[in-house]
């Protein structure tokens, strides 16, 4: 299968063989590394002979079953399966190749016992002519001998084209070990670069009398690349405040760079034109397109007004395909701000986005977040979102400046497979503050 410019694989219909059509199933079957082809919902569509031999199962026990039915969570590193599954789901959603460094997944031996095995896995999207993901190729490389040996330096390869069949098993393992080290080094440097980009862009929120604004950014777990989540908060000349969260598609340095560009465009447009949230999203999309910034992103924007006589503040908000904000009232109740969804930025569907209104009284809190806070492999996003207000209500005793930390500890205590960005705006109760003084 040939790789296209977008990092995916062209389907056989895209390739014309000079001597007639190529039997790609036959090619797939004889490839030496274990491989499986999965549908976007992670049903196994095919498995090559190497994979079937590795797990000791016939095709009838594999094909047509979900990945987790064939590779259930077990062993000393059960989280490895979660990492692989979440990577498969991201590849199916984003169309971007992902690799996962050495991780342990033991296999059952003929005697019924478990044999220690370490793997490097690669998940590669198969794209149709329209760029949609139609399948995911899952490849596993057994690096057990390299990991168990540890610390061995690979020999210099011979001059000229390499002939893998001329290398001993030991030499092949050593060369593979060198590749593993290089891969790990690339991932470490890419992750550091992404984090450095985000650190330089995600500035502290402004201090505004009458408001408590808090922000958090938590990168994904180390095995997964960081990407394009961001937050922002700034004050307009008229004293009103805009807060933003966004999530650029992708999990690499390019996504982090796109995030920085898009954040800057949206901030500049909203501040310079004094546009409301919906108008700012539309203008930022047009500007990004005109400047050639190829970035797909979900974004939520809210503009909080100055206080009235009772301390109430009007709130206008808009969304570009983003998860709904949450409002926690002073009495401890919480609810989602739901509205008809609109297109994410970069899709180019045209037409103005809708703007929605609510208000915040003293003691109320507005929460914007990215989907890393609520996405779960084993549950639908809708179900988790429905439960989110109750989870926020349960933290009613937590003071505003500690709410985001408590929410992360409650919802993603072991870290998320995706980045999480949050921004919170709490309307201070000035009467309570004055009484406490």
TrEMBL record:
<feature type="domain" description="PPM-type phosphatase">
    <location>
        <begin position="211"/>
        <end position="427"/>
    </location>
</feature>
<dbReference type="Pfam" id="PF08448">
    <property type="entry name" value="PAS_4"/>
</dbReference>
<dbReference type="InterPro" id="IPR001932">
    <property type="entry name" value="PPM-type_phosphatase-like_dom"/>
</dbReference>
<dbReference type="InterPro" id="IPR013656">
    <property type="entry name" value="PAS_4"/>
</dbReference>
<dbReference type="InterPro" id="IPR035965">
    <property type="entry name" value="PAS-like_dom_sf"/>
</dbReference>
<dbReference type="InterPro" id="IPR052016">
    <property type="entry name" value="Bact_Sigma-Reg"/>
</dbReference>
<keyword id="KW-0378">Hydrolase</keyword>
<dbReference type="InterPro" id="IPR000014">
    <property type="entry name" value="PAS"/>
</dbReference>
<protein>
    <recommendedName>
        <fullName>PPM-type phosphatase domain-containing protein</fullName>
    </recommendedName>
</protein>
<dbReference type="GO" id="GO:0016791">
    <property type="term" value="F:phosphatase activity"/>
</dbReference>
<dbReference type="InterPro" id="IPR036457">
    <property type="entry name" value="PPM-type-like_dom_sf"/>
</dbReference>
<dbReference type="Pfam" id="PF07228">
    <property type="entry name" value="SpoIIE"/>
</dbReference>
